Design the sequence.
């Protein structure tokens, strides 16, 4: 079996970070994780651009326009929605998730989804550079991997045999 193994090399990629200002402390930590990871994997800091939006609900609209602009190879959506005492949490989570999914389906630009949905601020902090790592970095790397995978579907991706995969 041939296996397509996309690279996580971010060299030469232009990446847009679309980030919610709401829960700003969490967002800053997610940005730091994404930025650090992208640069560690070869991205030039000058090729990263940050777009602030008011809240998580606004991420899909900004991300769609950014995808349609043709200026970026990938988009990283970052933010957090922390459960409160009303159903608002469910509406916002559904809206941002559905909105980003529609962009992924209709646009050729990969989108890394890093909007945390947690019950408490402590859970969000743990996932934004705390005890559970930094999801900002993880989703940035996922976006890079998707750029490389989709770009390689023309036959130029790194393809290995099953034996190569088993040996690694």
Sequence:
């Amino acid at each position: 079996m041939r296996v397509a193994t996309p690279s996580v090399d971010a060299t030469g990629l232009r990446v847009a970070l679309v980030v919610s200002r709401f829960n700003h402390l969490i967002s800053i930590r997610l940005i730091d994780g994404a930025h650090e990871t992208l640069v560690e994997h070869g991205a030039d800091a000058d090729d990263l651009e940050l777009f602030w939006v008011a809240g998580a609900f606004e991420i899909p609209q900004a991300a769609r326009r950014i995808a349609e602009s043709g200026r970026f190879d990938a988009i990283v959506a970052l933010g957090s929605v922390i459960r409160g005492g009303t159903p608002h949490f469910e509406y916002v989570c559904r809206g941002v998730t559905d909105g980003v999914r529609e962009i992924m389906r209709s646009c050729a630009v990969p989108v890394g989804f890093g909007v945390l949905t947690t019950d408490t601020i402590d859970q969000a902090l743990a996932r934004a550079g705390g005890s559970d790592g930094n999801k900002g970095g993880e989703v940035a790397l996922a976006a890079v991997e998707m750029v490389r995978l989709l770009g390689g579907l023309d036959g130029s991706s790194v393809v290995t045999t099953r034996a190569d995969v088993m040996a690694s």
